[in-house]
Amino acid sequence: MKLEGIHTLKAERRVIWVMIMDPDLLVKITPGISELVKKDEFSYEAISEVKIGPVKGRFKGELSLTELNEPESFNLKISQNSKIGNVDAKIHIQLNDLGNEQTEIIFDGDAQMSGVIARTGQRVVSGVANSLTKQFFDALDKEIEFMKGVDG
Amino acid sequence: MSYIGKSVKRIEDKRLVTGKGKYTDDIKIPGLTHAYILRSPYASANILGIDTSAAKSAEGVISVFVGTDIEGIRGVPTGWQVNFKNGDTMKEPAHPLLVTDAVRHVGDAVALVIAETKEQARDAADLIDVDYEVLEAAVDPAEAIKDGAPLVHEDAPNNICFDWELGNPVSEVDAALAKAHHITSLDFINQRLVPNAIEPRSAIGHYEEHNDHYTLYTSTQNPHLTRLLLCAFVLGIPEHKVRVVSFDVGGGFGSKIFHYTEEALVIWASRKINRPIKWTAERSESFLTDAHGRDHVTSAKMGFDKAGKMVALKVDTIANLGAYLSTFAPAVPTWLHGTLLQGLYTTPKIHIDLKAVFTHTNAVDAYRGAGRPEATYLLERLVDLAALEMNMDPAELRRINFIPAFNGVTEPGYQTQVALQYDSGNYHGVLDRALEKVGYKDFRKAQQESLAKGKLLGIGFSTYIEACGIAPSAVVGALGARAGLFESAQVRVQPTGKVSVYTGSHSHGQGHETTFVQVVADKLGIPMEDVDLVHGDSDAVAFGMGTYGSRSLAVGGSAIVKSVEKILEKGAKIAAHKLEASVDDLDYANGKWTVKGTDKSIAFGDVSLTAYVPHDYPQGLEPGLDFASFYDPTNFTYPFGAHIAIVEIDKETGKVTLQRFVAVDDVGNVINPMIVEGQIHGGVAQGIGQAMLEGAVYDESGQLINGSYMDYAMPRADDFPSFEVERTVTPCPHNPLGVKGAGEAGTIGSTPAVVNAVIDALWKAGFKVKDIKMPLTPERVWTAMNN
């Protein structure tokens, strides 16, 4: 499954970079993630719970960041296993500085599913992915506004 | 008592519709354990390690086995060998019961967990940690044969299992095409289907140490062959120590012909743990591991002369066999497909070139029709398309190309260009009857008028032939079958004149318990209540080849008739003795022997009693009245028919509504018209399912993405109009009942009629679309109109 999209955030690029590198914040804003434990500087153990159409699963696995080019881009590798199947995703994330305290995030990648989620949920998977992405960015927007509120 | 030709209600239905059927999963044995099979979530991966320690110590777990525990045991074999064109041996990679170093499709068996309950086995399987190294998969068969594609088996270069050809020399076909006035060409896919028997596969292995005996209860169409393969080819255990039982089976459609790995696993493991083991597939497993059907990629050309006479047919097909060779897999795209490309037509030059290909997908094998639906789809799509392209009437185009009628008795059979000799046929007869029934002329008028009102109506034809009861054994042996294709039957008359019939055919919806009993009761002139049928138990029935390929009545029924004839022959000797007459002076009718021209007679039951109480008995004659027969036919049988579909397309949405479906089939003589009609109805429903709704979809990583009833569209009653079914009768000239087989005809004939009807509707509305991929979803039809 292709994962791609663009979202514009109202904060400076370096600020965004710091935010999305913060595991505590990520746990807070990523839908479904209940635990994110740092393994080393660039990888985490993640536990999440996601409902995809008719199936629901508790996923466990790894989240790692590679090819970091601060503050412009990085690759996100997700590998999550569950009783209802596994998800492996590779996503390239690009942060473009638009000036004027605006940053554009472009993400582009692929996710592969196996197991029950591959054969029962496929029709709705991209819908679920879009909805989760939207929730993530909405939460990130809120965090930025909250942070600005605190700063201001 | 005359029963043949009567629509007697099905005897088995009382049991089946009141919940008294005996299916494998219903069987309970003291001490029964339950198995769960851990299956690969990946299409292609190396196994770097398996840790079963947590599973082994989980609650209720008795044993956990992985591939390395059963090394030395051969995998399941295939039953046909089809070699390369150049004579090289077919690639026949092992199909292990449990994999060791690599998985080759989603659903490949990795570990067997046995526990006290099914739930415990399943929970324990979740604790098994398999370290997979996921690899690229070969999924699309047309891509899989390209250089550099991932290999399913190291020893099958370009993933080719074998290549094969049949027909006239390709140079002659090319020459005929070069001279053709018109060539219709079509590239298309006959998509993969999931058989979807309502009863999931199930197997119980029961080893009894005290007498070193095994019983396998299994939901199979083929108990004796399963026993033979299991004993002689997989486990190497003596055949007389194994009983295979298959009582009621809830649908097979081909998918339960084959010997599956799970059957061997439960037998092997039952001895290991010295307890009976039951395995029953979950629906999701059925989707992943019941052998699938169809899956051809084809490019075909049909040439015509100026008058519309067919001059040549050239076919290139890639057949996807999946990751492993299932029992009949090599035969389906070859001897059950290439051989049918003559169709009903006099085409003088035909050639097919075929590549059978491995991919990282579930095995593909015979599914209702098995090869003949693919051949029929190919031919009938080409003929209707040619009629549109040449602006000819599709019925007329068929008529001028049909093989003239022949009865196979006083007129010889028809020798095709593709190895077969048709037995008897009257192809104009079925088409004419179907045209009359559908009201063809009126329809064409209505079609034009409705077009003016913006309605898209279409009519599609399919005139098919198929081959049933494949035989004789010597011929199929020469074609690569590793088994004979005869059938056995025993007719045992009990002392009181009641009759038990033992057949090697297997009934799983076909109504044998009624039809076969009708035949025996009719021939013996006794009430049907006095006859019972026994099937599906290797301890009761001497031998059998099982039920598939619409062979049961043509082959199994003929074996029964042979035994009945022996009963009557011996009975006549006893009767003659009792009546003090000569055998030649006796008539047999209505259950008694009568001395011609007198009222002296003796009833069947008195003769049978005499046979078992032989006090006053012919000298030198053995007591008893019990005969077994084996029947090996001299040829296939060739049912045929004409199917016509009428559809309406919603221009705004692309939704296709099937308005009418007319089927005129000729399956030879008919024993029970109601059962035949039911078989046609079911078959037509399955064929329309392929045209409009069904299709297994693998994504590029080899995941089956519609592996549930929420995702795979099965046809339902409200997808269909009431089918209009009729028959003509052209008896089979070479079997004693004159029957041809009816189980698959509906599926074989119906699919192209529906697609042709949609193409006709579009073409008449100005959308000159050659093909729409099946299933014809509204989106695909809409796209065809809006491209």
What is the β-strand count of chain B?
Answer: 28
Amount of helix of chain A:
25-40%
How far apart, in Å, are the first and last alpha carbons of chain B?
64 Å
The CATH superfamily label of chain A reads: START domain
Strand content of chain B: 15-25%
Q: What coarse outline of chain A follows from CA principal-axis ratios?
A: globular
Q: How many discrete structural domains of chain A?
A: 1
User: Any idea what the radius of gyration of chain A is?
Assistant: 15 Å
Largest sheet entry of chain A: 7 strands, antiparallel
Largest interface: A-B, 16 and 18 residues
> What does the main sheet of chain B amount to?
7 strands, mixed
Specify the CATH class of chain A: Alpha Beta
* Strands ordered across the widest β-sheet of chain B: 3-5-1-12-9-10-11
Domains of chain B (count): 3
Anisotropy-based shape of chain B: globular
Give a short synopsis of this structure:
Chain A is α+β, with helices and mostly antiparallel strands and 152 residues long. Chain A has 4 helices and 7 strands; from the N terminus they run E-H-H-E-E-E-E-E-E-H-H.
How are the secondary structure elements laid out?
The complex is a heterodimer of chains A (152) and B (787).
Chain A: E1 2-9, H1 13-20, H2 23-29, E2 33-40, E3 43-52, E4 55-69, E5 73-82, E6 85-99, E7 102-113, H3 116-120, H4 122-151
Antiparallel strand pairs in A: 1-7, 2-3, 3-4, 4-5, 5-6, 6-7
Chain B: H1 13-17, E1 33-39, E2 45-51, H2 53-56, E3 61-66, E4 102-103, E5 109-115, H3 118-126, E6 129-134, H4 141-144, E7 160-167, H5 170-178, E8 182-193, E9 202-208, E10 213-218, H6 223-235, E11 242-245, H7 261-273, E12 277-280, H8 283-289, E13 293-304, E14 310-322, E15 350-358, H9 372-389, H10 394-401, E16 414-415, E17 421-422, H11 427-438, H12 440-452, E18 456-465, H13 473-478, E19 487-493, E20 499-503, H14 512-524, E21 531-534, H15 552-579, E22 586-589, E23 592-595, E24 601-603, H16 604-612, E25 626-631, E26 640-649, E27 656-666, H17 673-692, E28 724-727, H18 745-764, H19 778-785
Parallel strand pairs in B: 1-12, 10-11, 14-15, 20-21, 27-28
Antiparallel strand pairs in B: 1-5, 2-4, 2-6, 3-5, 7-15, 8-13, 9-10, 9-12, 13-14, 16-17, 18-26, 19-20, 19-25, 22-23, 23-24, 26-27
